[in-house]
Structures are given as C-alpha cells and as structure tokens.
Design goal:
Elements (H helix, E strand, L loop, with lengths): L16 H6 L10 H17 L6 E6 L2 H12 L5 E6 L2 H12 L3 E6 L8 H10 L5 E7 L1 E2 L4 E2 L2 H10 L5 E5 L18 E5 L10 E6 L1 H7 L11 H9 L9 H17 L1 H21 L3 E2 L11 E5 L6 H12 L4 E2 L8 E5 L6 H17 L8 H12 L2 H7 L1
This protein binds pyridoxal-5'-phosphate (PLP).
The site of pyridoxal-5'-phosphate has 12 residues, from helix 3.
C-alpha cells in the first residue's frame, strides 16, 4: 500500500496533514482548564455542523458503533419496541445491536439499493395506537449500498401518525459531508464517528441529543456505565470527563470541525455533491450501474458500483491494492462480490477524485472488463470543468 496515494474507501477517510499534526499533542492534565479549551470548541462546532442551536453534544472515546450503543442504552429499557428498516449492512448491524440489548425490533425489510420506506413507517406508526414503539431508527446514508434516505420524510411520517417515538439517526457517513438538519428534522439522537466526514483517525463517537432524548434518559433502564450521558454531562460541567479523555483526537476534532465551519458547511455539502456527481458520470460512461436504484437516493459520500454477472467485485479491490497501492471498498453482506465501493468523502478534491477514477479504469481493464481507458475519467473531467467549484457553492 502506498502512503502517497489517497484512499477511496468510505471511511476511514484521508486526513489533512494539519489535522494529523493537531492530534499529536504532549501530555496535558485533563482535569485542568487547558482541557476545557479543547472540549468546549469541539462541542460548539459539532452542534453547528449538526445545524442545531441547542443539541446536547457528547463525545466518547469509541467509534460510531459505540455511538449507537450510547443512543440505545441511555434512552430505552429492556422489552421496549423500536421500529427500524433493513436496507444494507449498517442498518442490519444496528438492528442486531437492538436485539442483543433485549429490545423488540419491528423490522421493515427494504431492498438493498432502496432508501428506507417512510410510507411504511407511517402505516406502522399510525397502527400503533398505544404508542408502544419508543424509538424509530433511521440510517441516513447506507454506506454498504451508497443509498441516502430522506430523514425529513421519516419526521413527516412520525408527525402524520401523531406518534411520540424518539427519532434516532445514524449519520456516521453523512454528517459533516451531506445535508443534515438536526433541528429542522427534529432528530432526537444523531450519531457519527470521527473517521469519516470529520477527517480524523478512528476513535471518537460523536452524538447530539435533543431535550426529549435527555428527558428519556431519566427513566431508561438499560444498563450503561461507560456510555452514561449523565456521568458525561457531569464531567463536562467541570471541563472534564468521567474518565480520561482522548485529548489528542479531541484536539484534532477542534481543528477539523473549525476547518469545516470555515469552509462553510453548505460549501462542504456542495463540494461532496459535485465530486460525487463526477463519479456517477464516470460510472455511467463505463456502462455500469450503481447499487442505488434511483437518483433520489444517490449518496454523495459513497458509490457502490455493480460489476457484471460472473465477475467477483472483491477481485477489483484486491487488485487495486496490490498492483496500484490504492484502496477501494469491498461489497458487504448481501452485495459481497457484487459491488465495489468508491468512497468520496472527507478531505477530497475533484483532482484527487480523477486519480481514483483513472485507477479504477486500469484495474477493470487489467481484469478483463470491457472498459475503454479514459472513458469515465473524461466524463468526470467534462463535468468538473463545466461545473466549477464556485458555481457549486452558489447552487448550494
Ligand atoms: C462506518 C459506519 C458505521 C460504523 O462506524 P464505526 O465507527 O466503524 O463503528 C455505522 N453506520 C454507518 C452508516 C457507517 O458508515
């Protein structure tokens, strides 16, 4: 693997050199006011990136998966009913976690490649007259299939049913890259991690809690210790943690979140959309299809590309790594061997993306696919040159 080449996996993402250096800090006393100067900007910046005025932000030494566990254990009790759709590997794993915690999950199966079915949510919530469903789970961006779902539509489904369930959103591969509106969508818990849109090493779970979710935590009975938000909030009140905080990573987050805000979060969103659109033009020029079934669900952070029948898509990833030192993502779960994934989020530009597309073409030709070298790159170039960065910003 070359350390010169960027990675094109949908997390961990490429790290700007300044962010990497910001993670490299000498030992400080994490119970001194010095730590507050790292913690408080992180909390404020994350809240802004979520587009929230007053969400309670929590940052754990963990990963996105630990963020899920934080959401569930702080707000629910054994036997509680939750509603979730399964349309890919990440939504599947969240359901699995609920079941292992003794929650009763009403699962809506959706095709891998489709968004989550808000209309089915509305039917189920409307039928739940006694309000037994305590939480609705929604994976905003299914990283396994490159599918985004409409969270505003899920909120409308809850409202149309007049249902008081909490709305939990997995935004691990969307927050800080794609449009996310904590307040407007009245999200109760948003979950992400450090190694995707935030351009950091893995190691932080980052969450936003609404007032309603904070209230639910007062009566929720699932066991929790490490992830207890009550203990964490007490710590924050003293510029501290209930245990030793990951100071280096948080110093990195302070910088990377500020970089995102300096770029302007809507500009960050526009940049991701523009880079993703170039990738989609390339895939189309190759005569290939995305796993995502229709343009309204195309993800701006990851594209899962279907390979022709009889071709093992995992070979694409293995060959790209061994011959060119470039990382792409393998297919997961139901689409293992059927898709390879191009990650296009985080610290990325159109120019870097073109190198990834050029590499993908060499790999496919090496492996005997009927692709013309340069065809996808040309389509992406044509898109990038006629949709410059400034006009992408203006459109946002
Ligand atoms: C990456 C990812 C996760 C898992 O996050 P970890 O940090 O690996 O625990 C969960 N959900 C989605 C949508 C993801 O993309």
């Amino acid at each position: 693997m070359s350390f010169q080449n960027p990675v094109f996996i949908p997390g961990p993402t490429n790290m700007p050199e300044v962010v990497r250096q910001a993670c490299y800090v000498p030992t400080i006393d994490h119970r001194s006011p010095v730590f507050g100067k790292i913690l408080n900007p992180c909390l404020d910046n994350v809240r802004k990136i979520l587009k929230s005025d007053d969400a309670h932000i929590f940052i754990y030494p963990s990963t996105g998966t630990g963020g899920w566990e934080t959401a569930l254990t702080n707000t629910l009790s054994a036997g509680d009913k939750v509603l979730a759709a399964r349309n890919g590997m990440f939504s599947h794993r969240w359901i699995d976690m609920c079941q292992r915690h003794g929650l009763e999950v009403q699962v809506v199966e959706a095709p891998w490649g489709a968004g989550l079915p808000a209309d089915r949510y509305e039917e189920i919530l409307t039928a739940d007259k006694n309000h037994e469903i305590k939480a609705v789970l929604a994976t905003h961006n299914e990283t396994a299939t490159g599918v985004k779902s409409d969270i505003a539509a899920v909120r409308r489904a809850l409202d149309a049913a007049g249902h008081p369930a909490l709305l939990f959103v997995d935004g691990v591969s969307s927050i800080a890259s794609m449009d996310f509106r904590f307040d407007e969508w009245r999200v109760d818990i948003a979950v992400t991690g450090s190694q995707k849109g935030f351009m950091l090493p893995v190691g932080l779970a980052i969450l936003g809690f609404s007032e309603k979710a904070m209230e639910a935590a007062k009566t929720a009975k699932l066991p929790r210790t490490f992830f207890d938000i009550g203990d964490m909030a007490k710590g924050y009140a003293n510029n501290a943690y209930p245990y030793t905080p990951p100071v280096g990573l948080m110093n990195g987050l302070k910088l990377s979140s500020q970089m995102l805000l300096d770029e302007g979060i809507d500009n960050v969103i526009a940049r991701h959309h523009r880079i993703a659109e170039g990738v989609r033009r390339a895939v189309d020029a190759w005569g290939m299809e995305l796993c995502a079934k229709s343009p309204d669900v195309y993800s701006d952070t990851v594209s899962a590309v279907r390979t022709p029948e009889g071709f093992n898509a995992t070979d694409f990833v293995t060959h790209a790594a061994s011959k060119y030192g470039v990382a792409f993502g393998v297919g997961l779960g139901e689409v293992t061997g059927k898709v390879f994934r191009i990650g296009h989020l985080g610290s990325l530009t159109d120019v870097l993306m073109l190198s990834g597309l050029a590499t993908a073409e060499m790999v496919m030709v090496d492996l005997g696919l009927d692709i013309k070298l340069g065809s996808g790159v040309a389509a992406a170039q044509e898109f990038y040159r006629s949709n410059d960065r400034e006009s992408a910003k203006a459109a946002a």
